[in-house]
Amino acid sequence: MFGSILGMLVIGAIAGWLAGKIVEGRGFGVLGNIVVGVVGALIAGLLLPRIGFGMGGGTLVTIFQSAFGAVILLVLIQLIKKA
User: Cα–Cα distance between 42 and 52 in angstroms, integer?
Assistant: First the structure.
């Protein structure tokens, strides 16, 4: 259990950092990146299968999917802040 939680936090941090680089100026520090990455993973886990985009498993695929969801989250945050 500890290994999976640690893995989730590491993947969340990487995905959040990557999303912060893709969406200019949206880095939130290590803790914020973890949260953005984990929430992004949840968003991607709900959204991607519904549109028929399943990529299988593996660490790199998980990071990619989490980063994709995190980018969506950051763009939504950016749109809400502009409104």
Answer: 16
